[in-house]
Amino acid sequence: AQSVTQPDIHITVSEGASLELRCNYSYGATPYLFWYVQSPGQGLQLLLKYFSGDTLVQGIKGFEAEFKRSQSSFNLRKPSVHWSDAAEYFCAVGTDSWGKLQFGAGTQVVVTP
Amino acid sequence: GAVVSQHPSWVICKSGTSVKIECRSLDFQATTMFWYRQFPKQSLMLMATSNEGSKATYEQGVEKDKFLINHASLTLSTLTVTSAHPEDSSFYICSVGGRNEQYFGPGTRLTVT
Predict the structure, then answer these.
(1) Nearest to A49 among B44, B46, B101 (CB)
(2) Do B6 and B107 contact (CB within 8 A), yes or no?
(3) Lower Cβ count inside 10 Å, N or C end of chain B?
(4) Which residue in chain B is spatially nearest to A42 when comparing CA positions?
């Protein structure tokens, strides 16, 4: 069965510091992987996605993620966080050809001054 | 990307009553829409796949007679929570798109008193 694990429920990071959010997946075929961000009062916004090809994926807002098949991971990174990056981040795997998604539990990111 | 709206954004209803939530795809013809439920501080859980012109497909454990889904057109899907109870209080989110990307509505907060 497919699964998505985000080991960190909550991360606190100082503004300007680097950020890495972990995501591990379990999926039989080549996965379609996504990172979404959810800010209070707003819908989910896609940060980046990976289907195939270059394993280092660039997204919006300065985020990037690296797909590592050997580790079944798709970790999200940002070199220098901004206060506006405080939000809930979800890793997700596509489970069918229609776009059905299975989400990880999410990681709450708090940015301190 | 597609613009997805939901109405209402917030609703309070009394226990035992029914409430209808609309999901509209404003610029994308969606043969398939997805409905998710998100409890406070938890992840999104897929409830059902809404198929235009046919019956919805429900995930295991989701009561199809309680959560009625109608997808009468390519731009509108509705979720009706029948005989709502306090445990149905949650954040309901719809999405449209395909395997490459899903676009999410802003969500509907349902509170059952």
Answers:
(1) B101
(2) yes
(3) C
(4) B106
